[in-house]
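dumping this here before i forget
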Amino acid sequence: MTGGVLEGTVRRGLRMWRGIPYAAAPVGELRFRAPSAVTPWAGIRDASEFGPIAPQDRNGQFRVRTNAPMSEDCLTLNVIAPAEPGERMPVMVFVHGGAYSVGSAREIHKQGEGLVRSGGVIFVNFNYRLGALGYLDFSSFSTRSHRFDNNLGLRDQVAALEWVRDNIAAFGGDPANVTLFGESAGGNAVTTLMTVPCADGLFARAIAQSAPPNAIYPSEITAGWAREYVELLSAAIDNTSTESTSPEDAGQLLMAAPVDQLVAATTKMQLRAPDETPGTIALAPVIDGEFVPERPLDAFKAGRAHRVPLIIGTNDREGSLFRGRLDILATTPPRIRAIFAKTRKRSRKAVKAQYPGLPAPRPAADFAGDYSFWYPSVKVAERHARFAPVYFYRFDIAPRLLRWAGLDATHGLELFALFDRMDGLFGRGIGAAGGRAAFKRAGVRMQRHWLSFARTGEVGSDWPRYTAKKRRTLIIDRTDRVEEDPRRARRVAWQEFVPHI
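structure:
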């Protein structure tokens, strides 16, 4: 343990420690640098309160429903254990989502408590740097006097896993039995970290929920986004152009800018990116040739990913959530045309046939969700299954109100099942028209699979392994079932449509 003693809290049969620093505060000269070691403390440290969340826009494209304090000094984690933990208990480490720009380890009330109570595991979650502070690549602005590191959000995640490796035994956890799991951007973290060399050995199993595995880009693209961001930031601060600004001047601007200006410029860039570069997310990891040596999908194909058992899957209609201010996917006619322009006419026709009415809103949402989440997840599963056990799922169940609203089993909904959120105010609201009890039962079954996987690497005899030949998939619904190659025609059409994936 870094420093002295941690004093947590005990509540309803659980012991909790919050706001534990796992890396030094990335402030001052450490802004835009890889995480460094925590300065040890002496004596007793209060670990009863969450740490500040990473800077993010409360009123931006993705509204942040919290009044929690924000700070660049945000690299903290939380641990939940049974009040009387055993020895060498399985550990589950969760990476939150939020489009790489919002979210925190405190956004879901009582997150992880149900897993600890019912499964006898140690639960860990943590904050990591977001937005421009964590997911833009400013390394092209490095000079002899100052270096800008890249992939900072990912590096933070590795630092958190290293903290777990070095310290979790003191809480009753087994550092050799760690399951890394995450949703959305957190799912992307999981699939990416499975291919990051320095993450090797930091987790024994992985779960990727609704991941966009291909949302990671080469440095020549991310460098362009960095230049565009600096132009936005400069215009906001002093109304000047930086098109010909030297790396030294751009670097000074980034280091001196107030954090609220950095966040505001991030929001502006997010709003522009889906139309400027359809099908991409400007805030994302970068393939830098070192920390992330290659595109993760290529690493999975070649067997260079860490050969750990994997659960991976998506929700039935991932794209239906991304409407209005949340619309960052390839859902509009110009964005869809830009995606189609990259492929052959015959392939375009085959994919379009799978979404009758495209580009009308409903088929466009399904096209975009499949492009970003479902099809890349299928490719990860079929490639990794050659080298390690893989279990694929599709989450189909949704309360009646969400079906009436045209959302169905949309992006993020499975979190309400996995983390017992249907008893909260919002959960009761979406279940008010019916389906709440069945949804909760599906959550119990889902928890059972996740916990069994965390303990043993197996999920139960009712969920067979996924292979490229059989493609057996667990459909989580009112009654769970296993299907072979669900949506086969759609998968085959996508295979011809985006052969580079």
